[in-house]
Amino acid sequence: MLSDKKNVEFVLNANIKELIGTNSLEAIKVESTIDGANREIKVSGLFIAIGQMPETKAFESAVDIDKLGYIIAKEDCKTNVPSVFVAGDCRTKSVRQLTTAAADGAVAAIAAASYIDEN
Question: What is the pTM of this model?
Answer without folding.
Answer: 0.57
